[in-house]
């Protein structure tokens, strides 16, 4: 069964009186969890589009920054986007339900945040309202300011991002400890690990920008210590 079929099954619960934010309680174990991941990115992405006022954004194009969406499933993706955008529930409730679905400190929450950054940047700009939105979502997910800053440094284009900030370490951290952080980030970006924690195969491209950023940061830091 494809992820989009599982999403369709999950959304069928809406006909029974549940709200979109309710469906996350049913999607805590594989393979349903991967559907929950996709619904979370699309739903929170829709709320973000509404928050920054860009409700005319081509949502399917934005989602392609995260997912491989078959032509036959574009209508379903757009339907899900519009359900979330028009739902009276606030994004805070969505974020709380998503955080509960994955649990505290689950690496999948960082993957999900990267997906939201991809959507925020799909139109080529990063708006202050999007930054404020993502910062609040990360707080609800239980991330500290250092982790959020590292995610933003990796995802938002900058002429020369601070390599220490990209890896989420301080300049006082030993080179050996920085190497451990870099290796952990590379290890957590392996497709098998991502799939195991609930990231759907259709969204594995999330790791591409992360790997480029953390490898570049490590090279710059290690060269500076040579």
Q: Would you mind describing this structure in some detail?
A:
The protein is globular. It is mostly helical and 226 residues long. It has 12 helices and no strands. The longest helix is centred in the N-terminal third of the chain and has 20 residues, at 32-51. The protein has helices at 3-11, 32-51, 59-63, 74-86, 91-102, 107-120, 128-140, 145-155, 163-167, 175-188, 191-196, 206-224. 62% of the residues lie in helices and 0% in strands.
Keywords:
226 residues; mainly alpha; 12 helices
Helix content: 55-70%
Q: Name the average pLDDT.
A: 87
Question: Mind telling me the C-alpha Rg?
Answer: 17 Å
Categorize the overall geometry: globular
Q: How far is the N terminus from the C terminus?
A: 51 Å
How many helices? The count is 12
What does the main sheet amount to? Answer: none
Structural class: mainly alpha
Number of strands: 0
Share in β-strands: under 5%
List SSEs in N-to-C order: HHHHHHHHHHHH
Q: Which spans have pLDDT < 50 for at least 5 consecutive residues?
A: none
For this entry, what is the oligomeric state of its chains?
A: single chain
């Amino acid at each position: 069964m494809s992820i989009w079929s599982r999403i369709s099954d999950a959304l069928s619960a809406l006909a029974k009186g549940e709200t979109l934010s309710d469906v996350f309680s049913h999607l805590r174990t594989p393979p349903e969890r991967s559907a929950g991941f996709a619904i979370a990115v699309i739903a929170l992405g829709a709320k973000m589009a509404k928050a920054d006022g860009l409700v005319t954004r081509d949502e399917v194009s934005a989602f392609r920054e995260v997912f491989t969406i078959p032509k036959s499933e574009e209508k379903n993706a757009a339907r899900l986007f519009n359900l979330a955008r028009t739902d009276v529930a606030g994004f805070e409730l969505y974020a709380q339900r998503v955080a509960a679905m994955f649990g505290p400190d689950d690496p999948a929450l960082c993957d999900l945040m990267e997906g939201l950054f991809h959507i925020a940047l799909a139109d080529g700009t990063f708006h202050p309202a999007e930054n404020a939105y993502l910062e609040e979502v990360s707080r609800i997910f239980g991330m500290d300011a250092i982790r959020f800053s590292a995610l933003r440094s990796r995802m938002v284009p900058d002429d020369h991002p601070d390599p220490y900030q990209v890896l989420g370490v301080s300049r006082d951290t030993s080179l050996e400890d920085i190497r451990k952080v870099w290796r952990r980030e590379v290890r957590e970006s392996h497709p098998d690990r991502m799939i195991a924690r609930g990231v759907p195969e259709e969204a594995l491209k999330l790791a591409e920008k992360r790997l480029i950023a953390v490898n570049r940061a490590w090279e710059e830091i290690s060269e500076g210590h040579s």
